[in-house]
Amino acid sequence: MKINKKNPFHWIYLLNFTLLVLSSIPFRPLLKIFRKKPLVVLYGHKLSGNLLALKRQLDKEHPGFQTVFLTMDPSYYRQNKNNNFLLAQNPIHIFKLATAECIISDHGLHALLFYLKLTNIKFFDVWHGIPFKGFDAEDFRMQQQYEEVWVASPLLADLYVNGFGFELKKVAITGYARTDPLVAPQEKAEHIRQRLGLKHSKGYKLVLFAPTWKQDSRKRSLFPFDILGQTFFEHLTRVCRQHGAILLFRAHLNSKEQLLLSRDEVICLPFSDYPDTEAILQITDVLICDWSSIAFDYLLLNRPTIFLDVEPPFGKGFSLGPEYRFGPVVNNLPDLLARLEYCLTRPTEYWTEFGQRHELLREKIYGGFADGKAAQRCIDRLRRTLSINESSQ
Q1: Helix 229-242 vs helix 333-345: angle between axes, to the nearest 10 degrees?
Q2: Residue 315 — very low, low, confident or very high, per pLDDT cuts 50/70/90?
Q3: CA-CA distance, 386 to 393, in Å (whole number)?
Q4: Using alpha carbons only, what angle is made at residue 295 by residues 321 and 60, rounded to the nearest 5 degrees?
């Protein structure tokens, strides 16, 4: 759950979570006696991205582990309570949580920080995206205390060590688990469309607009070139209608803007309701983005990507800079519309123009580790670090 600092209920949730965690720590040695399998706890805003990929792999291939997802959000728990979810407000669940062998997170820890400081539970980080956004060592003080961080490639490992202040021995190159379904799909595109409620989109191409959020720039708009959202979408949907396409809109988790749009014209897929980003990318034919890390996931699909050349909202500059944009870069609305028409009607020409750059940056960013086996490499690291032999369980 993303903490809203203006919501008093969120502070109550956090306080209750903290008190329960602290109260469970003295009982951990006793509680572990009753545990039947090594408990792996996944923690993040939602069960998505790398965490979702790891849970799927653990549930499917590794019955020797018990895998659960922990949430602070009661409503999200109610929606998923039959999927091995734990609720941070439930004392029984927290006492089960206290028996964990390890905790894998893709963001901050909130009250779980006390487990990191006061227990021998092993912590692993999978982060939540390959970043354009600039970070420094101060941003990762907590993760630097983890057992390991699992990164996408040698390029990212070097960034973590020399840019983010991690010890080399704590950085393991596994690939990004979330990319596995992009390079080795397990679900047909038509099934994904049905699952996401897009049955009526059969026969249409799908264009996804996925901007990043305000980040460190309070005045930043979701929409480029000083254009109002409604006007921006009117222009995009006109091009889409002319060429047999439908426009999808996915705002960042942290974006607060609410849009009054006809679902016939623009289909909104907010993270709160559709956390499986990779499924959306699998059915997307053209991506329009700015500085969102979603671009690096989409890179693996070898499909047209248009970059909006807007002011980056990062107070600390870049991790991966503007040179890592691999498709056409546009800085005004007419160019965007012309490029969108080009991508929808002449995809072969797009690949002739940009294909070499796609391949070059794919190799540089992923280094051969986007092969559909990243989740399993993460689990292999987990087993070795915990000294767990599942065959003997």
Answers
A1: 30
A2: very high
A3: 14
A4: 125
Cα separation of 391 and 393, whole Å? 6
Residue 194, domain CATH: 3.40.50.12580
Closest CA to 291 of 318, 266, 272, 270: 318
Residue 391: predicted pLDDT: 52
**Residue 172 shares a structural domain with residue 273:** no
Claim to verify: residue 162 and residue 208 sit in the same structural domain: no
For residue 37, is pLDDT > 50?
Answer: yes
pLDDT at 101: 95
Q: Give the residue among 235, 282, 284, 229 at the shortest CA–CA distance from 251.
A: 229
Mean pLDDT of 320-329: 97
The CA-based angle 224-228-229, given to 5 degrees, is 85
**Which of 208-212, 213-217, 255-259, 330-334 has the lowest average pLDDT?**
255-259
The pTM score is: 0.93
Residues 331 and 353 in one domain: yes
More confident residue, 286 or 269: 286
Domain, as residue range, for 353: 186-366
